[in-house]
Amino acid sequence: MKQFEHVLHTIDRSLRVLLAIMLTLLVVDVTWQVLTRFVLPQPSSFTEEVARFLLIWISLLGGAYAYREHSHLGFDLIVRNLSVAKAKIVFQLCCLLVAIFAITVLIIGGLNLVLLTWTLGQHSAVLNVPMAAVYLVLPLSGLLFLLYSIYFFFNAPNHSIEQEDII
């Protein structure tokens, strides 16, 4: 389990850096888009597509990172009134549901979408980037959600659960 925690810690660090870089690129891209549209006579043609693709990647990877940090919104009114043992069971059930969603929708569905767009040879209109590369974030974020769910599921009984950690 120590090795799994070390791997997750490495993934967390890498994910933080990647998200910071992508967010910085998004800010620079949108700033350039505004400058070229309103200051320069010729608007930039690629900035809107870059911003859209960065936003997709930031949203999905950021969602996985927020799940890792227990930063998602949660409805904890019911859980507050449960005993610690029952709260742990609810927490583990939520981890199981997240894992099922990650496997079925994000990983399997995402891989099917990546395969379909790769087979059809779909490319973006302006940048001519394969859409399979853009959609690759779906199974990648699904894998992150799955790894974090597995970690939370098996570590829930080993620590006391704070109200913010549940759901």
Automatic annotation (TrEMBL):
Residues 27-155 form the Tripartite ATP-independent periplasmic transporters DctQ component domain. It is a multi-pass membrane protein. Pfam families: DctQ. The chain crosses the membrane at residues 15-35, 50-68, 89-120, 132-154. Keywords: Cell inner membrane, Cell membrane, Membrane, Transmembrane, Transmembrane helix, Transport. InterPro entries: DctQ, TRAP_DctQ. It is found in: Cell inner membrane. The keyword Membrane applies. Belongs to the TRAP transporter small permease family. The complex comprises the extracytoplasmic solute receptor protein and the two transmembrane proteins. Part of the tripartite ATP-independent periplasmic (TRAP) transport system. This is TRAP transporter small permease protein. It comes from Pseudoalteromonas haloplanktis (Alteromonas haloplanktis).
